[in-house]
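Dear colleagues,

As part of the handover before I leave the project, I'm documenting each prediction I ran so the next person doesn't have to rerun anything. This entry is a single chain, and its sequence is reproduced below.
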Amino acid sequence: MSTRELYEKCGQSSLFKHWDRLSKHEKQELEKNLGENAARIRPDNLVQVCQEAIRLANDNSKDVSRLEPLPSSSYESIISKPQLEREYRELGLDALRRGEVAVVLMAGGQGTRLGSSEPKGCYNIGLPSGKSLFQIQAEKLARIQRLAEASAPIPWYIMTSKPTRAATERFFEDQKYFGLDKQQVVFFNQGTLPALDLEGRHLLLGSPTELVESPDGNGGLYRALQDKGILEDMLHRNIKHIHMYCVDNVLVKLADPVFIGFAIKNGFELATKAVRKRDASESVGLIASKNSAPCVIEYSEISKEMAEATDKEGLLKFRAANIVNHYYSVDLLKRELGNWCDIMPYHIAKKKIPVYNNEKDSYYKPEVPNGIKLEQFIFDVFPYVPMGKFGCLEVERSHEFSPLKNASGTANDNPETSRAAFLELGTSWLQQAGADVCPGVLVEVSGSLSYGGESLEKYKGHKFAVNLSILQ
């Protein structure tokens, strides 16, 4: 059966309405591209997947009656607990020293909402140094590598997407990998899926010879780890522990020894960091327990009464805000990665998708949603992990989480808030070290100089009267 016959048999004959207008080369290109897509997922299976995702999205019978906060055996806070933090840090540093830790960065997003055509990791948030998110993170990685006296460079696996891969690699090459060993940085692409119309029945063309494709969501990480040989590479390097995070968090602690030590000490195979909700109305996903299994529940799925409920300490009962910052044991991935790829559900996102109209031989850029993009969520595997093997570590928001989501001038999670969070944290470290920082002055502390406030003793008594960047 030819590729065209396969698609027509699967109800996608509309893709070929322009067939007679195509040149021989264009026909070959169209069939080649369609064939590559069919090799990943047959078009009839894709439609079936989309129909199920639409059904789940329209299901209003979600039961939250068995929703509870995580049990204390799986939930711990290190806020204002320096002794516990030190204990976990030492365990994590030992693992780093032995070369057992790898870092996975999800960096497939573009800076479109920020007004940039570059990958989001290339974005300059306006620090005095002018550093990009990638550079800030690379310096943190190099610093913790030195602090731990790691026996080998910490592998940094960077998941890009088709639109960001080339630009990301070029950026790293231009910046000479920010001083890191080139061999420790591994790029790999997340998968893509074709887009469908709003009914979820017909595939959309982006050009005369190509389908519209889009990244398969952050949950596509699991299939990419499996299909791109990343897990195999980790096993080859004798990695036992993985720290995963998203590129847009300017305060992220790469290969955080405290987080890794928390998982090791408690025998957790999958763990996640959380910060406290700002207030009951904050629009953020929550880490919780449903039917005695760990989960992430959307803020829209719980009632106002549940959102405002407090515990005996006066804190919000449901307060563990999801920041997509996870720990995985390699043993868990070896055992379950293939199963997760088979059972994870898909979700729909209705989008304004530029398409090629092959009847009119014209391109169309819609002003309202005209199609569906399918995606998977990384937390959809949580319920498949036994509660006894799942942990959540609550950390201080101002120390570890300030995401860059929105354009300059918006209400929050923008370049201004990210910049302020980074500068305020570094300035507080200097003050704790005994520096004299004048009122209103903010100082940028380079990640090359300090990972979490250490090594700043030499600035005791030093007066800072103007905004500036401190480099090592």
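The chain has a mean pLDDT of 95. The two ends are 64 Å apart (CA to CA).

All the best with the project,
I.
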